[in-house]
Design a protein that fits this description.
By secondary structure, the chain is an alpha/beta fold. It contains four helices and nine strands, in the order βαβαβββαββββα. α1 packs across α2. The longest helix is centred in the first third of the chain and has 18 residues. The radius of gyration is 16 Å and the shape is globular. Bound molecules: inosinic acid. Inosinic acid binds next to β5 and α3.
Length: 181
């Protein structure tokens, strides 16, 4: 998809060139920090797919990628998630970077980290492209952050509204009317 702003969007918050530059920086940083280790990049489908694809290619180090999928459900008041697709590879003793599109309340990452920890990796850190710190409920450790974002509903570069807009090359905020409709 090219760079036109869809009518439902309000404005571009992270332009494509700024985004790609930051992804390259993060890739270089991770390659440096995990040099010589059994590096795995794991993401949660579907939103993290786009970031993982670019981040892994910006990381000049041998690594393997793997995927999980989780569904959100909210029994009672607390948000919680369940696994719908588990990892393909064993991560015991590996250095794992959990690659996320966005950390919002932190509940998803908190849950996924607890699942990954149970496999006994040597290292486990989080790299998120976007962070909405003002919305945090679960206190999760984040080793690498692309951009801190305001409390707005965002689309693009993996983030969707009802499945759409993931393929936008930038991150944009949605118009309030689009969220409500
Ligand atoms: P959490 O609230 O940190 O558990 O985030 C759960 C998931 O909600 C994220 O992985 C995204 O898929 C989704 N999400 C959170 N904020 C946004 C947003 O602004 N736009 C689109 N999806 C979002």
């Amino acid at each position: 998809m090219t760079g036109a702003l869809p009518a439902e969007c309000d404005r571009i918050l992270v332009p494509e060139d700024v985004l790609q530059l930051r992804v390259s920086e993060l890739g270089r940083e991770i390659a440096h920090d995990f040099a010589g280790e059994d590096l795995r990049m794991i993401t949660v489908l579907k939103g993290g797919l786009f970031f993982l694809a670019d981040l892994s290619r910006a990381c000049d180090a041998p690594l393997a990628v793997d995927f999980m999928a989780v569904s959100q459900y909210t029994p009672g008041a607390g948000g919680t998630v369940r696994v719908t697709k588990d990892l393909s590879d064993d991560i015991t003793g590996a250095s794992v970077v959990l690659v996320e599109d966005i950390v919002d309340t932190g509940l998803t990452v908190h849950y996924v980290l607890s699942l990954l920890r149970a496999h006994d990796p040597a290292k486990l850190v989080v790299c998120t492209l976007l962070d909405k710190p003002s919305r945090r409920i679960a206190d999760v450790p984040i080793a690498y952050t692309g951009f801190a974002m305001p409390d707005k509903f965002l689309v693009g570069y993996g983030l969707d509204l009802s499945g759409r807009y993931r393929n936008l090359p930038f991150v944009a905020s949605l118009r309030d009317e689009a969220i409500l409709s």
